Structure formats: C-alpha cells, structure tokens
Amino acid sequence: MSRLYIIIALTFLLGGFLRAQSNLGNYLKYAEEKYNKGDFFYAAELYQKAMQIDSNSVAILWKYAETLRAYKDYRKAEYYYSKVYEREEGGLYPMSLLNLGLMQKQNGNYDAALETFKKVKSNFSKDKKNYIYIKAKREMESCLWAKSNLSDTANVIFTHLSEKVNTKDSEFGHALHENSLIFSSLRADSVNSTEEVYATSYKTKLFKSKKENQNFTDPTLIKEVIFKEMSSGNGAYSKDGTRFYFSLCKDDGFNYRCKIMVANYANGRVSRIDSLGTIINAQGSNNTMPYVTQLGDEEILFFASDREGGAGGMDIWYSVIKNGNQYSKPINIKALNSVDNEICPWYDTTEHRLYFSSNWHDGFGGYDIFASEYKEQFSNPENIGQPYNNPANDTYFFKDLDTAYFTSNRIGVYFSKNPTCCTDIFSAYPVPPPIVIEQKDSIQPKKESLAELSKRLPVTLYFHNDCPDPKSRDTLTHVNYINGYSEYRAMLDKYQTEYSTGLEPVKAEIAKEDIENFFIEYVDQGVKDLELFRDLLLEELKNGSKINLTVKGFASPLAKTDYNVNLTKRRISSLVNYLREFDNGVFVPYLDGNAANGGKVQFTQVPFGEYTANKLTSDNFHDQKNSVYSRSAAIERKIEIQSVDYIKEDSLLFITSLSTRTIDLAKIGTKDSLLRTIEFTNKSALQLEIERIEVENNYLIANFEPIILPNNSIRLNFSNSMELPKGLFSFYAKLYVKGFTVPLLIMINGEGQ
C-alpha cells in the first residue's frame, strides 16, 4: 500500500472522527438546552444520538437517565439508571442508585425497589443526616407499606374522562363550579397528532367544560387569565363565589416561579385581576395551588409554597382571610409536611378532611393522595388507597357531591409515545348498593366474606428474647403486645452494638444497618399490618360475625423445648391483651362472647416453640451475639395470625373443645414407645361420631370411642406406629367428625434423638 493511500485513508478517518466529535458536542449542547427548557422528549432524542457516537460515556448515560425520569418514562429510566450504577457505583453520581430505586417503585417493582433502597441506606450509613440516607430509609418503609396495601381497593366506579376533556397532552383538574369543570391543559390551538406537547412548548391555560349528566361538553378557554409567556392554572373560587384565584407561573424548565392571583368573578366572567401581596407571594419562592374554604368560622386560603420556614420542598400552608382581601401570616401545617413535597390542597367541609398529594409519606409510587382529619388540629396523613393511587403520580384530588376527581399519569392515559408522559383527569363514584327484594316469611342469608381480612395475612409480630415475662413458665401474661413492642424497639441501639462487636469498622457498619433494616422491614411492619388487620376485624365483629383466629407461636432455640412452648403461649396471650385494651376495651364484648349483636372472636393457639426454627441459628447461651442479637435469631421470635375462619353456631369449633391442641413430645428417642391423651368434649345437645383421625406421615395412630354423647367427653389416645423422625419435627393430626367437612387440628411437636 502506498504512503499516499495511507495518508488519504487516515485523513478520511480523522475527518470522520472530527465530524463525529463535532456532532457529539452539538448533540450534548442542544440536549442540555432542551432539558433546561423542559423539552424532555427532544432532549432524550438528542442524548440518544449522543450515546450512539460515544456509548462508553457514563456522563451521557446519566444525563439520558435523568431526562427519561423528567419525561416520566419510568421503565427506560430504570434501565439506564441501572447502567449508570453498574459503571460508576455511585462514585460520580451519588443519586444514581436512589433514583434507580425510585424508578423501580414507580414501575410497581416493590421487591426490587426495597432491596435497592436497603443498598442505598447501607452505602450512605456514615452520614445519617444526608438526604439520600434519609430518603432511602423512608422509601424502604413506603415499599413495605405498598406491598401490604395493594389489595386495599375502594368500592367505586372508576372513570377516565372523555377526550373532550383529556387529550394526548396533559390536563389537571381543579374544581367543579356552576356545574362546570375547571381545569388546566397544555393543549394548543393546533396540535400535530404525531407529536406530544410539553410544558414549555405550550403554556398551560385554564378551561371550562360544562357537565351534562356524567359527560362533559367541549371546553372553552378562560381568556381573561391568559398572560403572554406565562402559564395559568389551579383555578379556585371563594366560598361566596365572588373571587377567582389562580396560579400564574413563569416556566423555565425546572426553574419555574409561580404566584397566586385573585380576580373578581360575576356572571361567569373574570375581571380586575391582581396579585396577592408579599404576605402570600413571598419573594424568592414558589406560591401556587390556591384553595379557599371555610374552616370553623373563618375563611381560609390553603396553598403550596417552598418559602422559608417550611419542612423542605413544597409545603402546605394556610392563611386566614378577613373581609375578602386581608390575609394573615401563613401557617405551616407541620403534621403534613416533610422534607420532600406536599402539594394540591383541597378541603372537604363535610368530612372535615384536608386532601393533598405528597411524594414522601407511605405510598404506591411518586405522588400519592393523602387525607388529614381536622379536629382543632390536623391529624397525621393517611393514604386514601387504590384506585385513587397507583405507582405513577396522583394529584389534584377534589369532590363534587359523591363523585371524586383526581389527576394521574398512570398507564391508560392518552399519549403519543410515552405511556406515562402526560396526565389525564379521572373520576370515581361509589358503586350503588344492590336492590334487595324482601320476601315474606323468608330470612335473607347474610353474605359472609373474609376476603379483606384474609388478604392481610399473615400478620407477623416479633419479640425480644425470652419476652414477655423472662424466666417464667406461665402460659399467660399481663403484657400488652404494643407495650412490649415499644420496649423492644427501644433496644435497637443495643442490638446494633452487640451484633457488631468484634467486627472491623466497615463490616460493623454493615451489621448495624442489617439489624436496623430488620426492625424496619419486620418488627415495625408487623405493627402496621396488625393495625390494618385490627380495624378490619372490628368491622366484621360489629356486623355480628363470629370469627376464629389461628395464631402460631415460634421461638429461637436458646431455651429448652417445654419452656419455649410456654413462652410462645405467653406471646400469643400478649396479642389478646392488646385487643382487650385497645380503644377502651372495644373488643372485650367480642372476646368474652357477650356482645349484644352476637359477634365473637376466639383464638386457636398453635405454639410451635422452637420446632420450626432454623437449625443453623445459634442455641449457645454464652454466644448471645448470635443466639440473641443476630438477625437470624431475632427473626425466629414471633407469632403469626395465619388464618381467619367464620364460626358457625353448628361448627366443631363452637360445639366441641379439646383439653389441648398441642402434643409436646419434647426430646424423645425415635424408637421410644409413647402414649399421649387428649380429652375431647361435646358441648352440644347432639350426639357426635368421630369418623377418623389422620396423622401426617403416619408417625402416630389414635385410639378412641367413636360415639360422643351430648355434654360428654371421651379420651383420644395417641401412640407411635413407626420410628419418629430425627431432629426437630412438627406435624398435624386432623380430627374428622361425621357431618362436618372441616377437621379440628392438633399440633404434634418434638425432637427425635
């Protein structure tokens, strides 16, 4: 090959390289410009082209992931954040792993998100005041909450408003006034159907759409509130309807600034527009989302602001309005606000509840809708559940009569390219009650369903070693579970210290985080699950239901077998005590079986002791680091509400009793002969007949007299029919009575030597 040819080839390649580098620089420059202006779709397109030129640049990957998140393309953003973290492990972009977890959560991947947030928490454990650490810890709790509440669906008819209101751009619902829906939209006068429209390409404008039955007419623009190069939205009316409030915002990508405006309103028209003063529109801050209502005897302006004095981000504030034009110094509602954002306030004067959206409190995704009850002060917020909330963003909740409206970018919105890009307005109203036609001389059967209770199972509650009542052989306790939990939770520092003793600094920090994660993921979550289950149980009992709860008890293998069985019985007893003492004894009539409506709750106790404990868990008393304070030991010390059943008046649980439901064989030779006896009592006026007793694995056989006369007892004699298994074992005997399809269960525990 001639030198001239080589020079020409090199010149060609160098020219191509320089052109590529030039194109790369242009793509990055224009992408950043588009991103800063809020044109996220176009910025993403440009970053994608840049990646085709330089696929090894972590910086470009990071910017692309950030742009996808801003564009609300959660699935692609999750993928590219994972790629960023794979390459730089948080060294260059500390937020990469946290943002990955947030995207996993917004995609509904709660298990994956939980593990990611644990990792973030561990990575930033040296600075527990760091926002990333605090946010990761909060999101761990939120993921656990979401997993427990996925079945919490309200009984409503859920509607996506028609394309007369919703478009492939974004719409935001604000209020119903004079039978018209007031909403803001990014729709333009003329929109190319092949392209989506974004916030800064077209400014938001306010519209009205007349409601006719359950439908809405073509919207009309509220022209009076259009300002050049500004966005208007968040329309709200004073209680007397003479004033119209709205937000006026100057958009510059993320660097927007909003202020609250007010205008006269009469005969369907807006006039005399003015800005509220600096008491409300504090300089250097965003002030937006006004809502005016009555709170007690006072007219109140609720709004969202990031002004100084808040908890962080956007907070909910309120100001008292005097004479329609005087505004008191705003008050921060501390019970609601967090280090992240609380927005979109709306107050229900009938329920006395303030609704708002937040991306901090326990939720399913990004922004969820919450409610806070007002009784002289605001209560802690509660998530209003599905279908109002989902893994995407849910905002702008308000009601009109029995219909609720909210705004969401969930899957199912109208779109051109990205299925979660843009927001639409949805409505929900209660399912009408079924029409019941009464028939003379006929009793309509009650429809019994434990579906909601069963969805909450198992409820698992954890205990400190040998608690409650250490060194006791009693089977009952006076300890209330919640009191015991509080003492247990207060021992976190001791657990961390003991479990990390003797480890080098890095491993010690990992051990401490592991123990704290256990308390968050298991101990705390157990209490939250119990509270949800408790409320559903009470509702069932108030309806007159008779319910049996099967509760299993477990222990770590530190103590002897017979001691552990009694310990697990005390733990179950502490749960019963909790229900007895809750809300001034509201459960007592149901527990004692003397409720006026016939409602009743009883417990079937299955105390396993340590029979099912992990055999690798330390049972060495002198090694308390591992036998008491390790995660593996702590996770064994628990009780579980495992099943819920209705008690019918003719059920075996109601008309019979067993002297014990547990045969404890303790430590026993596998070839030893044994005989254990249980007394079976017929409490009814019927003659009963035992059909059979089945023992799992055929290790035992049962001998008995099959006929049980009314108000009489017989003895069930169990003996071994073959060698018992070696090691810890636990299995059931099932007692079948003629005429009853559901057997009684007897637990058999032991340790074959």
Provide structural commentary.
This protein has 753 residues and is of the alpha+beta class. It has 4 domains: 12-149, Tetratricopeptide repeat domain (Serine Threonine Protein Phosphatase 5, Tetratricopeptide repeat); 156-418, 5 Propeller (Tachylectin-2, Chain A), CATH 2.115.10.20; 449-647, no CATH class; 648-753, Immunoglobulins (Immunoglobulin-like, Sandwich). Helices cover 29% and strands 30% of the residues. The strands form 8 sheets. Strands 2, 3, 4, 5 and 6 form a 5-stranded antiparallel β-sheet that branches. Strands 11, 12, 13, 14 and 15 form a 5-stranded antiparallel β-sheet that branches. Strand 7 and strand 8 form a beta hairpin. Helix 1 packs antiparallel against helix 2 (40-53). The longest helix has 38 residues, at 505-542. The protein is globular. Mean pLDDT is 86; it is low at 9-14, 189-201, 439-448 and 609-613.
Task: Summarize this structure as a short list of keywords or feature phrases.
753 residues; alpha+beta; Serine Threonine Protein Phosphatase 5, Tetratricopeptide repeat; Tachylectin-2, Chain A; 4 domains; 5-stranded antiparallel β-sheet; 16 helices; 30% strand; globular
